């Protein structure tokens, strides 16, 4: 396949394949490095993660090692994410229009900030509350011996989903910008949204009613914030449309 004569900068099909292969190599190499580094610091990561907890135990010979390996994989993915994101954007950027590129550079930092905000909120607020609640059922006859594997799964089952659900205002903003939803639609379907919120909490969090309720509370608040954001976006679009109509008249 040859490049288009009309645009000497247009890349051929095999050129795209070659670029994709190069970027995949960079992503895989970065992941390998960050996972190895993550494993080297997995004990420190575990210390940070288990700050709300008491002493943890492990009940299988390989449990501690496998838990640290799991933390290394997640830590490596987190630190490799900027490189992964950069390569995805760099690969897609030539195919985007100027206004689409500008919109992309606004949305991505906003998404990262929301994700970090959700993770920090879950770690500092929700995780201590949930852990203290469940540990509070222990007594002299029922002593808690929490394994490191179960605790890490429980903690990550709260922290990571909160980072994801905090994207709700951003998703609402994008859909409102595309005229797919609006504040009226969100208000009219509030009851359905509440049902969906509890279903999402049941899927994303550990299988207990307390964790689901802890997830549902912030989700409801985020939904109400999303209504406000949608209203702002719609009003801004209406104002821009009015200005465009006036310009056409003159």
Overall description:
With 250 residues, this protein is an all-alpha fold. The chain has nine helices and no strands. It has helices spanning 13-40, 42-49, 63-92, 98-135, 148-165, 168-177, 183-188, 190-204, 209-249. Helix 2 (42-49) packs across helix 3 (63-92) and helix 6 (168-177) runs parallel beside helix 9. The longest helix is centred in the C-terminal third of the chain and has 41 residues, at 209-249. The N and C termini lie far apart (48 Å). The relative contact order is 0.09.
In summary, what is this structure?
Helix content is 78%, strand content 0%. The protein is an all-alpha fold. The model is unreliable at 1-9 (pLDDT under 50).
Return residue spans where pLDDT drops below 50 for at least 5 consecutive residues.
1-9
For the biggest sheet, the summary is: none
What is the radius of gyration computed over CA atoms, rounded to a whole number of angstroms? 23 Å
Count of individual beta strands: 0
Share of β-strand residues: under 5%
The span between the termini is: 48 Å
Mean pLDDT: 80
* Shape category: flat
**Which series of helices and strands comes N to C?**
HHHHHHHHH
Which class of secondary structure composition applies to the elements? mainly alpha
Q: Which bin fits the share of residues in helices?
A: over 70%
Number of helices: 9
């Amino acid at each position: 396949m040859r490049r288009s004569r009309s645009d000497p900068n247009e890349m051929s099909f095999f050129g795209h394949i070659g670029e994709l292969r190069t970027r995949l190599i960079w992503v895989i190499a970065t992941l390998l490095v960050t996972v190895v580094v993550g494993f080297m610091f997995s004990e420190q990561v575990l210390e940070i993660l288990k700050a709300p907890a008491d002493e943890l135990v492990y009940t299988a010979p390989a449990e501690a090692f496998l838990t640290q390996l799991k933390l290394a994989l997640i830590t490596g993915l987190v630190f490799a994410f900027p490189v992964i994101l950069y390569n995805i954007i760099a690969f897609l950027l030539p195919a985007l229009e100027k206004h689409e590129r500008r919109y992309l550079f606004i949305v991505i930092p906003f998404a990262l900030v929301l994700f970090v905000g959700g993770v920090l909120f879950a770690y500092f607020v929700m995780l201590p509350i949930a852990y203290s609640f469940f540990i509070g059922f222990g007594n002299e006859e029922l002593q808690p011996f929490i394994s490191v594997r179960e605790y890490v799964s429980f903690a990550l089952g709260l922290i990571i989903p909160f980072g994801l659900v905090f994207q709700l205002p951003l998703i609402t903003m994008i859909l409102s910008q595309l005229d797919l939803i609006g504040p009226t639609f969100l208000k009219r379907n509030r009851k359905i949204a509440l049902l969906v919120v509890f279903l999402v909490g049941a899927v994303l969090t550990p299988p207990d009613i307390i964790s689901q309720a802890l997830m549902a509370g912030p989700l409801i608040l985020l939904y109400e914030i999303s209504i406000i954001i949608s209203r702002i976006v719609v009003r801004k679009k209406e104002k821009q449309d009015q200005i465009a109509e006036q310009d056409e008249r003159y």
